[in-house]
Write a structure and sequence with these properties.
Order of helices and strands: EEEHEEEEHHEHEHEEHEHEHEHE
Structural class: alpha/beta
CATH superfamily of the largest domain: Medium-chain alcohol dehydrogenases, catalytic domain
CATH class of the largest domain: Alpha Beta
Helix content: 25-40%
Number of domains: 2
Radius of gyration: 19 Å
């Protein structure tokens, strides 16, 4: 089968298409022939080496996958050969999804509903699980509460806006000028062009802030959250911000996710009821993974997907 691998950290030039033997499922695992593979900023960070989550190369990137069951490992009873499935295999371990076939723990997969083709199913898992972890599990968001979603036109942001609205929240979002209309169309009650306006001068007493940037950005997020509120940071936070949050009773949570059928099913239910949609900005052939990373770096509305 074809797979994308790399033998060193670096730019997109390190991504190489190779031919490797088909993997075989062990007990409790499923062999999936991939129909589509989601591309995430995490992939870029791991490729470059500034977030070496899975250690040193060689490795194969990718954690979002949708496709068809081709073989079952011993003891797997949830699925049958030919079933359509999707999920986020093995995070925070290596998912190995940039390939024509991938072995996935059966517990990391969910049956793909008829409402999703493989492209849109593959675009969903990582961003959905991140939004669900932030909004439902950490914040316990309630109807009428006020949320700020930063970078709301991106992968996590665009599903977070929709999830928060579905739960009855008032949603303020930041986005670049080119994505303002897109984010408004997702249902955001207020959209701030972050290049033109400073949200810290416009907002206060928010119940939840989703901060995809971490680091120094968290100080700005803390400035607009209420005492006792929640800041969900998708990247690492500074110790001084941890201290500042604790002094105000703010829950400052560095969001980390693992595969979850419960979270994926919650999104499937919203999609099936017409209350949420995952937006795919473009697709690329598997051997164009580097071009997809370049496009992601230029900023896209929603998600990008590879097709083997």
């Amino acid at each position: 089968m074809r797979a994308i691998t790399q033998t060193r950290f670096g730019g997109t030039e390190v991504l190489e298409q190779v031919t490797v033997p088909d993997p075989e499922p062990a007990a409790g695992e499923v062999l999936v022939r991939t129909g589509a593979i989601g591309v995430n900023p995490l992939d870029v960070a791991v490729r470059e080496g500034w977030y070496p989550m899975i250690g040193e190369p060689p490795f194969t990137l990718g954690w979002d996958v949708a496709g068809t069951v081709e073989a079952l490992g011993e003891g797997v009873t949830d699925f049958a050969v030919g079933d359509r499935v999707f999920g986020m295999p093995r995070l925070p371990g290596a998912g190995n999804a940039y390939a024509e076939k991938v072995v996935v723990p059966a517990t990391d997969l969910l049956a793909t509903p008829d409402s999703l083709d493989d492209v849109h199913a593959a675009a969903l898992p990582l961003v959905a699980l991140t939004a669900y972890r932030s909004i439902v599990e950490v914040a316990g968001l309630q109807p009428g509460q006020r949320v700020l979603v930063q970078a709301a036109g991106g992968g996590v942001g665009h599903v977070a806006v929709q999830l928060a609205k579905a739960l009855g929240a008032e949603v303020v979002a930041t986005a670049s000028a080119g994505k303002v209309d897109f984010v408004r169309g997702l249902g955001a009650d207020q959209v701030i062009d972050y290049r033109e306006q400073d949200f810290t001068t416009l907002l206060s007493d928010l119940d939840l802030v989703i901060d995809p940037f971490g680091g120094e950005s968290v100080e700005r997020s803390l400035a607009v959250v209420r005492d006792g509120g929640v800041v969900a940071s998708l990247l690492d936070v500074r110790e001084e911000d941890v201290v500042a949050a604790k002094e105000r009773g703010v829950v400052l949570n560095r969001i980390r996710i693992v595969p979850s059928r419960t979270a994926l099913q919650a999104f499937v239910d919203l999609i099936d009821s017409g209350r949420l949609a995952v937006h795919v900005a473009g697709t690329f052939a598997l051997d164009q993974a580097g071009a997809a990373h370049d496009e992601l770096g230029r900023g896209v509305a929603g998600k990008l997907v590879l097709i083997p």
